[in-house]
């Protein structure tokens, strides 16, 4: 039963965003079965949804009951969030409280790794809907995408891959001015800002200069002119995302300049237009010799960026991945954040499930993101948590042109959840899961319970059957899907297990690579000591013998065997739970997810058997419970 | 000093091939500094090269001294080989003996794995010169290629990849009739036949049929009509090469038909035009579960084809790889050949150095090919050697559009040597190497000695630093270059090491997979017994503990360590030997090969360290000589 106020909508919208809010309100109520009558501002007596648009560009809206009516007051942008908030709660059938909420961060965005040719790097839901055949495109889906983002509380997107190549380079020139402008206008209607990934050596690749040295006057001038042209022609352009000196991308190091000098030069170029620079911290030696046991990739972020704290312009945001290495299923929080006291930073999550099941295995990441946001660096008295230290958030997007947006239907919970967390980092992951389930599959209590249970268990399950205890990197090189325990062992990526007959892991305490010492004294002490180190991170921080005793008395090896057998069983249980929903869901959706579960089980069995066999062959120690390990 | 008879050339050529022979003779003598006068048949008194063309299509020519003159008599095709023989010996400065030689095999060809898009599968010398942008092309290089083949004694080539995809499928239709005809005519002038790889399911892919069942009348009719059209428009088309039921390619098994039924249907279709079918025996389960220790890929050839002996048409040649698995640096000879008593067979070598250094590492394969040709199956009294059992030979080509044809200059010795062996399987690999060196780099004795030494040692050196004792498959999956000992271990390709802390290898004796029993009783007894098994094949045939004692008293593990240290040292010695030739070679050639040696040393060090480290971590047994193994 919808409240009485859904029968009428009062108020007029002045701006394009206000009008979009009104349109969404009408469409949303209609989709829920109402037939709202829109009656301008002339019906003071009736119960109605009353939209009050005020001037400005704030994202805030205030919702409150006024008698029988519901008032939504805010700027055009604010009204959009307010309307979606109202619609969400109506759909949930929840008693509606007052809402007076501002987002926690001014920048809450998705990073798309879409290539100009239409492919998506680490994309698991079809092809790009931003690019086709070397060109940007604006379609019906662009608008739906803007609606999708706004409905989750997001307000920005970077549409092209941080690895800028091919015709994506030309996004900076006038070549695609018209297409970019169309996309930007389409996004702007929903308050979504457009960002572009740029190549640091664009002045050479596009401008014909013989250098991209950030201190070179010609280079500065080129960027200045390019920005003038670009920002004048594209409304709503917010700035650039830059992957520099990282995995072969060009950057200031080539010219003996610091990361700060590189970022600041670009920051100066975009500043006249209110632009910002998102500067990635993913700088590490990606041509490491595996024989070199001194170099530790985990140290790289801090080693490169901590000394530069305070040297960046105000409109530079350091974008750092949540862990020190690369989006593994379990990593400690990047210590770099503990060192940035005078620098704006942006947390980069990844909802594209590159290392977490590639949207074939279900893996609800929101509990992990929440843990990371709650993480205390123990370095200052106040505002010490991740959520308080960062100034912005983004996630590598899990979308594509698949009809359901994310390939795996359940993967959409990660997009929704990331949006809600980015508005309010204290949101509860279980509540988000439940809410998402009701909004997606309806309010049948069994469905809600099953879906919420599956989502909430999924990360632990995935962790159990894949790489154990934070060690990471047992995946197939290149594809990053499926097990290959030694796949990266003799390669150049700095991700080594160094397992032998007796021991496994890299020692990162002070006797090892010293990575633990990048944390505050209190945390360093915690991680450094194998007894106090959280067990789920044991193999991230320490090299240990297989017979090391865990807190519960099991050996390290037995714990790994157990986890792998249990992980598979638990995945099977999730799959069976899903099967019981056959009669309660749209057949097409039910079947699609069921197929993904089949693949997940195949994958889980493969992980279980490969990891167990590999360790058994190394150690020749059998499973204590006599379960099957292939010799 | 050239002989006096090089001043005059007497004789006229009637056919296009005879004219090509005359042209080559003139050009060849001119290149050696002579200025031969061509004087028809009117100069009986002068010392001259006297070409006598006789009718027919035999490949034979007879060379003999008549007083001061040199007579070359033969068919047009024969004259080509006769002229190249003469030129080669003049260039070598050798006292010229009479020559009255026929080739050992009527089909001596190269298989190109060139794709229609211009790429080459397993190509290491640039792009295709047969295809560009989806189409066949005929250029200056096509003619030079025909000359190259004829000068080495070869007489055929299959120009497109056995994995037929993309527009290569359309080679069977009229689409590329003109281009194919041009190529065929260009090759025909030098006696080179054209072959095409075809897809077994062409009737579906091209003809719109709903089956490719070889017993279906519509399918037979489609192939018959296709062959009529194709053979009428392309002169010199010799037949088809077919990869069926192999690594995902379609084949008769899909219709419950045997390999013989599939091959025979095609044989019937090409027979009216004198065509032949080269039917590959590379049929095995390429989706094996690594947990399945019963299935042995090495057995597959015999299991599939031995029972079919005698069931193939006369114009079918079974094309089998030299070993039972896939072109590794060391394999036993395929046992299948010992079972084919009533079936024509064709030995497939690979001069494309897929697993043997990819034309970055030098690896002269001719001694290995000679060993294989000399191999006795011990199954019958006479004609029991490989060379006597086979009816034809081919090699996967190592050419591309690199200026020097083969990328690594020294890799050209493999093409030359394969040609000479295919004419005369008793040719001596060392003599071939020496001859090639003189023809390529001139007759400086130091150069000849150094180059010959490098070539003759190169295979042993490569074998030492890569996968040991016939076990194979320690290469990086996909690229097949560089070490990755467990790269294939949990994959679907049937190539497992199954190494654990105590043992390594797959047992292929009767207690194991029984592969040894596919050989004759005498050979089976030899291989079955670990004591009599040739040591270089020990890990191909047997699973052994690391402390197994080799004949010289070393442990198996120590032997592997030693080989890897020595292999690197010997590669370094080859490289140093090359460096000493700096002043004796064209600078460009010297530098090019020097760079390849640098890469070979890098690669050899990588192989040495990765294989040794991997085994050390597994076994924890140190090198007895205390050399450096990274822990």
Topology (SSEs and partners):
Two copies of one chain form a homodimer.
Chain A: E1 8-10, H1 16-31, E2 37-38, E3 49-53, E4 61-66, E5 69-74, H2 76-92, E6 99-101, E7 107-111, E8 131-132, E9 135-136, H3 140-152, E10 156-158, H4 177-188, E11 193-198, H5 202-205, H6 217-233, E12 237-242, H7 259-270, E13 276-280, H8 300-305, E14 316-321, E15 344-350, H9 366-374, H10 386-389, E16 392-396, H11 412-423, H12 429-441, H13 445-465, E17 503-504, H14 521-528, H15 538-541, E18 544-545, H16 556-579, H17 587-619
Parallel strand pairs in A: 1-2, 1-3, 3-5, 7-10, 7-16, 10-11, 11-12, 12-13, 13-14, 14-15, 15-16
Antiparallel strand pairs in A: 4-5, 4-6, 8-9, 17-18
Strand order of the largest sheet of chain A: 7-10-11-12-13-14-15-16
| Uncertain stretches of chain A | none
Overall pLDDT score of chain A:
96
**Sheet/helix structural class of chain A:** alpha/beta
Percent of residues in helices of chain A? 25-40%
Oligomer: homodimer
The gross shape of chain A turns out to be: globular
Rg over alpha carbons of chain A: 25 Å
Through-space gap between termini of chain A: 61 Å
Number of distinct helices of chain A: 17
């Amino acid at each position: 039963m919808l409240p009485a106020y859904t029968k009428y909508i009062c108020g007029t919208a002045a701006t394009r965003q206000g009008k979009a809010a009104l349109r969404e309100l009408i469409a949303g109520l209609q989709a829920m079965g109402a037939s709202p009558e829109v009656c301008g501002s002339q019906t003071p007596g009736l119960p109605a949804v009353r939209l009050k648009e005020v001037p400005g560009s704030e994202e805030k809206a205030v919702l409150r009951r006024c008698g029988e009516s519901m008032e939504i007051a805010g700027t055009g942008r604010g009204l959009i969030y307010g309307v979606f908030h109202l619609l969400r709660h109506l759909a949930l059938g929840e008693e509606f409280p007052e809402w007076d909420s501002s987002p926690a961060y001014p920048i809450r965005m998705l990073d798309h790794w879409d290539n100009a040719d239409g492919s998506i790097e680490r994309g698991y839901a079809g092809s790009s809907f931003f690019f086709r055949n070397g060109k940007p495109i604006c379609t019906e889906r662009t608008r739906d995408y803007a609606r999708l983002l706004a409905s989750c509380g997001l307000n920005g997107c970077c549409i092209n891959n941080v690895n800028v190549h091919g015709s994506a380079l030309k996004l900076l020139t006038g070549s695609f001015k018209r297409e970019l402008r169309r996309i930007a206008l389409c996004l702007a209607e929903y308050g979504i800002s457009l960002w572009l990934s740029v190549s640091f050596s664009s002045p050479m690749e596009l401008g014909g200069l013989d250098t991209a040295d950030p201190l070179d006057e010609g280079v500065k001038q080129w960027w200045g002119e390019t920005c003038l042209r670009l920002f004048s022609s594209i409304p709503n352009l917010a700035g650039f995302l830059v992957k520099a000196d990282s995995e072969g991308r060009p950057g200031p190091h080539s010219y003996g300049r610091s990361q700060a000098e590189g970022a600041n030069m670009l920051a100066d170029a975009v500043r006249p237009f209110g632009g910002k620079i998102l500067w990635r911290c993913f700088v590490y030696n990606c041509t490491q010799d595996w024989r070199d046991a001194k170099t530790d990739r985990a140290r790289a972020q801090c080693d490169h960026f901590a000394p530069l704290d305070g040297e960046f312009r105000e409109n530079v945001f350091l974008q750092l991945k949540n862990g020190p290495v690369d989006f593994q299923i379990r990593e400690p929080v990047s210590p770099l954040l503990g060192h940035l006291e005078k620098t704006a930073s942006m947390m980069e999550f990844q909802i594209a499930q590159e290392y977490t099941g590639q949207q074939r295995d279900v893996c609800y990441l929101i509990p992990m993101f929440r843990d990371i946001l709650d993480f205390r660096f123990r370095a200052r008295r106040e505002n010490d948590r991740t959520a308080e230290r960062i100034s912005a958030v983004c996630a590598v997007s899990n979308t594509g042109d698949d009809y359901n947006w994310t390939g795996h239907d359940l993967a959409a919970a990660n997009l929704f959840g990331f949006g809600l967390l980015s508005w309010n980092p204290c949101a509860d992951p279980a509540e988000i899961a439940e809410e998402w389930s009701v909004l997606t599959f309806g309010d049948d209590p069994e469905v809600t319970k099953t879906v919420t249970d599956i989502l909430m268990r999924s990360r632990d399950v995935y962790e159990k059957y894949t790489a154990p205890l934070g060690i990471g990197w047992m995946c197939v090189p290149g594809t990053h899907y499926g097990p290959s325990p030694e796949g990266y062992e003799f390669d150049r990526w700095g991700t080594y297990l160094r397992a032998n007959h007796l021991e496994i892991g890299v020692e990162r305490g002070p006797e090892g690579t010293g990575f633990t010492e990048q944390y505050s004294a209190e945390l360093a002490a915690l991680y450094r000591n194998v007894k106090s180190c959280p067990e789920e991170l044991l193999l991230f921080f320490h090299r240990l013998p297989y017979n090391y005793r865990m807190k519960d008395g099991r050996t390290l090896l037995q714990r790994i065997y157990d986890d792998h057998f249990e992980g598979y069983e638990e995945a099977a249980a999730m799959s069976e739970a899903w099967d019981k929903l056959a009669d309660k869901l749209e057949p097409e959706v039910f079947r699609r997810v069921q197929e993904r579960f089949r693949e997940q089980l195949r994958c889980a069995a493969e992980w279980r058997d490969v990891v167990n066999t590999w360790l058994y062959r190394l150690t020749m120690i059998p499973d204590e419970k006599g379960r099957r390990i292939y010799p």
